[in-house]
User: What shape does this take?
Amino acid sequence: MVADNPEIPLNRPLASPSIVTRLHGLVVTVDHKKLGLMYIASALFFLVVAGLQASVMRLQLAFPNNNVVAPDTFNRLFTVHGTAMVFFVGMPIVAGLANYLVPLMIGARDMAFPRLNAFGFWMFLFGAVLLYFSYIAGPGLSGHGSAPDVGWFAYAPLTGRAFSRGNSTDYWTLSLLLSGVGSLSSSVNVVATVFGMRSPGMTLMRMPLFVWMMVVVSAMMFIALPPLTAAQIMLLIDRFLGGNFFNTQSGGSAVLWQHFFWIFGHPEVYILMIPGFACASEIIPVFSRKPIFGYSAMVAATTMIAFVSMGVWAHHMFSVGMTSVGNTFFMISTMLISVPTGIKIFNWLATMYGGKIRLELPMLCCLAFLFQFLIAGLTGIMLAAVPFDWQLTDSYFVVAHFHYVLIGGMLFCVFGGIYYWYPKATGRMLNKKLGLWHVALFFIGFHLTFDTMHIPGLLGMPRRIYTYDSGRGWEILNLITSIGVMFQIAGTACLAWNIIRSARKGEKAGDDPWDAWTLEWATTSPPPEYNFESVPIVRSARPLWDLKHPEDPDWKYE
Amino acid sequence: MTNGEALYLADETAPWRLPSRRKVAIGCLILTESAMFTIFVVAYLFYIGKSLTGPYPADVLKTPIVSTICLLASSLTIVMALRSFKREGIEGFRLWWSATIVLAAIFLGSTAAEWKRLILDHHLTISTNLFGTTFYSLVGLHASHVIIGLTLLTLVLVLSLKKSIRRADGERIEMVSWYWHFVDAVWVVVFTVVYVIGR
Assistant: This one.
């Protein structure tokens, strides 16, 4: 990723460096762009691995009384799938996008603390490796256990010594502790960078919405991740020092774990979702040829989501037996979230309204996102209603709901982001035909799988069962759900092939292929190590528009 | 297009000032540490009076007044140390800074003595009952922060004795002091929860 700028003489050997040199370069790098791409590449790798684990589960559930995997294996599959998707796919994509784009968008030359940045990446990567290493090392000396099988929220007392022998749960705990430290260091870095390194003239209300949302997400991590870390430390104390935090035999409370986990767990959903909003908020204006509608309302809505999301956690626990006051409070606070999210959806629609919409790949992904996220939000409101939740909690309806949020919402935005910024990171366009195949196949597969999945939930199919009897009316629905997975696999394969192939053979992109307005498009593609030759001066929220249209700059109207 | 020359519009606005990234980062660190302590404090409060067997806090805990005074005083001495660093000379700084270290060490020593008494005389360990579990985790989490702080303080002292601290490092030292104030403030909460409410 060294600059290919012919004007600048660089002291580098003429022959391309050996593979060892290049790998060594990756290990020692502190460059925010390399680290960002490493985050995203690892995230996509784990997306494929955890996605294949999900595919095995769908294969098992495709027919009643199926015997593809044993019940124990199935438990491990859904635990590792869930944990990996949240912590080793979602979180690193967030960190990767923030790392790569935030300094470029605010006109900085690197993150505030480049070495801390590298530290965060390696903590995340080794945390992820530790989780998968448990398949080999979980049995430990005692010979019990393998990968963790306690579910991604690991309710007590399942995690107690008596019920989880061997070291499988410990691998889960340590892996999340490590990657949690990594995520925190990267979010501290993002906030310090944004507040301390904006280029002259870039006031807070001139920052791209992407940057705003990444700051809010980082701030949420400061509050939301430590409860998980604290709970993990307590679990370690219970398991290794004989502590009693979650030991119901000596007065400990299993429900306390649920509270601690979901105090982290619910904001986490928004920590994953808001970066999706961030991508959409950059892509939709550029492909509608209009500035974002209601910039300050978007900022306010994002901040409101952050605040309200801290007070909704117990809606995951309606069936645990809280007081009716507790149930009502968490029902209302949860429904309150739909206000700022609604504001956002209307702002995106209003941005598109009357615009010259270009149906390029990033925009297609965002359009799919808008429809899917709306449905995900509607099922969310359904589940927020306590009586409805009592009926459907821990059923496939819930599984369908949150996959709708995270795949239909976040992942589609991330796909959009990949199509949008890939030319910036590599200097080459992704192939449009392959891209259309990917989006179409994935779209079809997503809807086959997750639209259908709601219905067995309504019919009473509980989540996390490894098989079911025939004759309940679930067979054909489960088969359709599983068939959808094949389309998703085919779509993902198109994306992977596109990413690999276009890096060498893609059409040259130039500096600004989409005619965009934010600062990352003002430098070369890929950007040189120092990002900008001279620090840009900003006078409006669309600095590149001002540069391209000196006769009609934005700052005249601010 | 590449070098953004034209972005250099002559800007007539006031000089561009940004907050120090070090201060922002330490502020964030303190925020996130506070969130973690909050969870341990909540666990402690939640489990007050829920132990099924003894020993109970009312029987075995003694209010650590001297060590609390020492720790709170260390917040004052570190302020004095920074003041002399900025105004006077390195000697005053070293003196006040060493005083801070001594006070912190006294605090840690008295915690160690308290734990020794609880473990040997009262047979209260982390696995005895809920009180033991929550007490040792909360006080231990705080003590581990004191240990980190003490390490940082000692490091700064050693560097200043080796004369490798310059005036420009003022902000770095100030950040150590922010962290130290945070550790002290947390103790106020821990003290209230463990020795006042919890007994």
About this structure: DSSP finds 16 helices and no strands in chain A. Chain A has one domain: 19-557. Residues 19-557 of chain A form a domain with the Cytochrome C Oxidase; Chain A fold (CATH 1.20.210.10). Chain A touches chain B through 59 residues (CB under 8 Å).
